[in-house]
Specification:
This protein is an alpha/beta fold and 322 residues long. Helices cover 29% and strands 18% of the residues. It contains nine helices and 15 strands. The protein has a nine-stranded mixed beta sheet, sandwiched between helices. Strand 2 (23-25) and strand 3 (32-36) form a beta hairpin. Helix 1 (7-18) packs across helix 5 (124-133) and helix 8 (276-291) runs parallel beside helix 9. The radius of gyration is 19 Å and the shape is globular. The structure holds threonylcarbamoyladenylate (TXA) and magnesium ion (MG). The site of magnesium ion (MG) has 3 residues, from loops.
């Protein structure tokens, strides 16, 4: 059930969280499927609802920086205090930090790891929900395992069904999942690129590595090579022979000013002119929409893998993985 994110409905959602139930809610990145992070039974429902394997850990959402030490022991390690200090100006925002966990966070949240991913979201609905629930909220993206992350309330319903209580806060601003940074390795590692870019992190930290690329034992267990997939086959336009494309073709273009020069059935322009913020904002919505259009193939533009382009191409390449 989709409910507008009014104050009354947020209070009702918070009552559900307190009661050990699940609620889907908007953040500035994507919609999350939340539960009380301290309640192992409630968190188990997240894995069951998503069909997600239990070794794949969740992100714990807080509202205030001062709450960080209630879920992590990072303050025991001066090096971590320094690193967190250098990054905290990106919060509230689209960044998750991997830090040592406290015992109050049950191991079901962290897939058995002794570390926990923590994020302070900026979205006012997410913040009001966390405050009203009075607990940290564990939340993965609110989609079926391996499917496209939801950036609209209707995507959540489409992916997880109509029994889920969904707070509708409109379209997510960023549209890509948060940047995930591990601070527990010797050199900080970028485990998942996002709207807080590699370049911004490098400027703040001095040194950072691109973590777990295409590894079979990724440092971040959720980073599978194939992920974020539509059911329809997706290819990068630069990888296909434009002379042998199917008739029943969908196109996702980054530039409205340059329409495709080959025949197609449907086209979605993500931006007027290769604006990467617009591209990231609309990418997943376009994938949901064309995936419902019964096409034989979707082809999509590419961009340079720097700045926000690194995160955009990361998601597109995973979605296009056969
Ligand atoms: O933008 C977001 O991050 C959204 C919103 C709802 O906050 N959440 C989200 O969660 O994308 P999820 O579960 O779909 O992705 C979490 C990622 C996964 O790749 C997971 O492996 C990684 O974070 N992760 C979580 N805890 C970790 C840990 N302790 N160590 C390494 N990676 C971790
Ligand atoms: Mg996800």
């Amino acid at each position: 059930m989709i409910r507008p994110a009014t104050h009354e409905n947020i209070i009702e959602a918070a009552a559900r969280i307190k009661n050990g139930d699940l609620v889907a809610f908007p953040t500035e990145t994507v919609y999350g499927l939340g539960a009380d992070a301290r309640n192992a039974k409630a968190v188990e429902k997240i894995y069951i609802t998503k069909g997600r394997p239990n070794y794949n850990p969740l992100i714990v959402h807080l509202t205030d920086f001062s709450e960080l030490e209630s879920v992590s022991t990072y303050k025991d390690t001066p090096r971590l205090v320094d690193l967190v200090e250098r990054l905290k100006h990106f919060w509230p925002g689209p960044m998750s930090l991997i830090l040592p966990k406290r015992d109050c966070i049950p191991s079901v949240v962290t897939g058995g790891l002794d570390t926990v991913a923590i994020r302070l979201p900026a979205h006012p609905v997410a913040r009001e929900l966390i405050k009203a629930s009075g607990c940290p909220i564990a939340a993965p993206s609110a989609n079926r395992f391996m499917h496209i992350s939801p950036t609209r309330a209707k995507h959540v319903e489409e992916s997880l069904g109509s029994k889920i209580f969904i707070l509708d806060g409109g379209a997510c601003n960023v549209g890509l999942e948060s940047t995930v940074v591990s601070l527990v390795s010797d050199i900080p590692q970028l485990l998942r690129p996002g709207a807080i870019t590699f370049e911004e992190l490098e400027a703040a930290l001095g040194k950072i590595e691109l973590g777990a690329k295409n590894s079979t034992h990724p440092a971040s267990p959720g980073m599978m090579p194939k992920h974020y997939s539509p059911n329809t086959r997706l290819s990068l336009l630069k990888d296909v022979d434009i002379n042998s494309l199917p008739e029943n073709l969908g196109v996702i273009s980054f530039n409205e000013k340059r329409p495709p020069k080959f025949p197609y059935k449907r086209v979605i322009y993500l931006s007027h002119d290769n604006n990467l913020e617009e591209v990231s904002n609309r990418l997943f919505d376009a994938l949901y929409e064309l995936d419902n259009a019964k096409l034989d193939l979707i082809v999509i533009d590419s961009c340079e893998e720097k700045g926000l382009g690194l995160a955009i191409m990361d998601r597109i390449k995973r979605a296009a993985k056969a």
